[in-house]
Design a protein that fits this description.
By secondary structure, the protein is mostly helical. It is 69% helix and 2% strand. It has 24 helices and two strands.
Amino acid sequence: MSDTFTITGVDIAVFLTFIAAVISLGLYKSKGEGKSSEEFFLAGRGLKWWLIGVSLIAANISSEQFVGMSGSAADYLGLAIASYEWMAAITLVVVAFCFLPYFLRTGIFTMPQFLEHRYNGTARTLMAASMLLILVGVSLTGIIYAGGLTMSELFAGKSLFGISLGLTAWCWIIGVTAALYVAAGGLKASAWADLIQGIALIVGGGIIAYFAFQKLGATPMAELTPGGANPREVADTAGGLSKLVALNHEKLNMVLPRDDKNIPWTALLIGLWIPNFYYWGLNQYITQRILGSASLKEGQKGIVFAAAMKLIIPFVIVIPGIIAFNLYSAELAVAQQRSNDRTILKDLGTPGATTVFVMTEEWKLANPDRVAELDAHNTTVRANVEAPREVEIRAGYKFDAALNTLIKNLLPPGSGLTGFVLAALLGAIVSSLAAVLNASSTIFTMDVFGRIYPNASQHTLVTTGRLGIGVFAVIGCIVAPLLDNFGSIFKYIQEFQGYISSGVLAVFVFGIINRTAPGVTGVVGLLLNPVLYALIARFFPNIAFLDRMAICFGSILAVMWVIGLVKPLPHPIEFKSNTRLNLEGSKSARLAGVAVVVVTLILYLIFSPLGIAG
């Protein structure tokens, strides 16, 4: 990494002021609340549209978005990874007008509760268990790891207040800080803190994008790493935008080949919609914000506001990631080597080692002096461990280091911008962790503890929620450092959510459309998905995980439809109103939603073979 990276007194002052302001606002606004479960978990159902919209973005765009999406963009995916953002804009519009009215009408605290309204208690229990597993084992650990990676890479070779901190230490600092914060103030504290953090995230991303374009424009073409096009087509005096297009002709294409393992064009038709609808419409740590809406109008306007903001996210996250590879591919290679060294040092030569290092040919060529040492280690482990854990040691680039590479090299020292960006990133981590921890504790308290002890007092429920936050945070901090060997953190989160997302979405959509299928259909749908998803992954590994989701989604809908035909209910299920909220919809939000959809389609046209990529 760049040796010129420094954190000045101005940066520290900006950083501490920002963090203090965020925490103080959140705790002040939530002062005196948290006495009841509705206040603690759903902010008393009083959130306004502007707070909902910004809070949705802050909860969503955390370090794993900045780190993972910019990393995927630095890799071959380029702008194609932006489909997670632009398709989310359309998804949010659908959620606002097709899902939200049902959720608010039933007065639910959690998404599993809705399944009990439509199907039965078993369906609720199954979804609660699976969502807890994914929230804690995937979302929570992914966010902590991405945040720890960002901070550890930024401070690599440096000390903070005289202490040198590594990946594991940063994971614990981030996890414990977030747990204390959300346990103190609940959802309302998180939502108000998100108001500052959400705005700071977009501004911080814009600052990085600005300096990235400036640096790209000032760098001679011979010093830049091409991404597909012939760099000789553009002169050294050209601006950053011209060089971006010339260097990354293929990376500015939203439509990837059919055989791509991450985002094939077929996934744009079906597969990618599944994680989008699951995440924005059914994922507790996102929907908890809209379940706290003061009315249906406020919820719909807030969701559409978030959809509009999603359209600009790729320009402040994805594009800078692409530029990072053009400018600093050598430093990304160094970061990959450092990641390999961390992985090797954890197990090499330690008593009772259980890890076998699978060395790629490229790594062997780059590290000939270490091959014999690792071969000897592998032989010892295989001789003493029946089923050793295998970890691939590969050469190449640490693409997930793209963001911190930009921060280290681009932001001018002494300006306070480094402190602001670091504060925005840390705030994003805390914001998203708060959302996941609050959601996890809500599901555990209301769908597990509350059903075992139905007569528990409000004080007991809130206390249980706070204890759950602490337990889940500890689990996340223990598991998060292990993700350093996985590769793309963004892919990790999306792929593993597939074990439940297709089934959950199918069960919800079917349950809303078909009111006469019996309760067992929901149970079958939830149980069938992980089995199908695992079987396809095992026997058809070349099928992209997004296409895998599409196959599972269609298959489960077909099975549920057959069950509904064979054994229909005598009378359709009714979603009775169980809320004091005003359920009148918003006409202005509907018009704005249409505008968001139109703009999204235009962006896809621009960045397609018919537009810039053509």
